[in-house]
Amino acid sequence: MSKLGDLGAKLYRGEVGYDFVGKRFLWYGVSILITITAIVALAVQGLNMGIEFKGGAVFTTPKTAVSVAKATEDAEKASGHDAIVQELGTGGLRIQITGLDTASAADVKKQLASDLKVDQAGINADLVGPSWGEQIANKAWTGLGVFMILVVIYLAIAFEWRMAVAALIALIHDLTITVGVYALVGFEVTPGTVIGLLTILGYSLYDTVVVFDGLKEGSKDITKQTRYTFSEIANRSINGTLVRSINTTVVALLPVGALLFIGGGFLGAGMLNDISLSLFVGLAAGAYSSIFIATPLVVDLKEREPGMKALKKRVLAKREAAAARGESPEEGYGSDAEGDGEGGPQIVAQTQGRAGRRR
Question: Which domains does the chain have, with CATH numbers?
Answer without folding.
Answer: 3-49+132-306 (1.20.1640.10), 56-128 (3.30.70.3400)
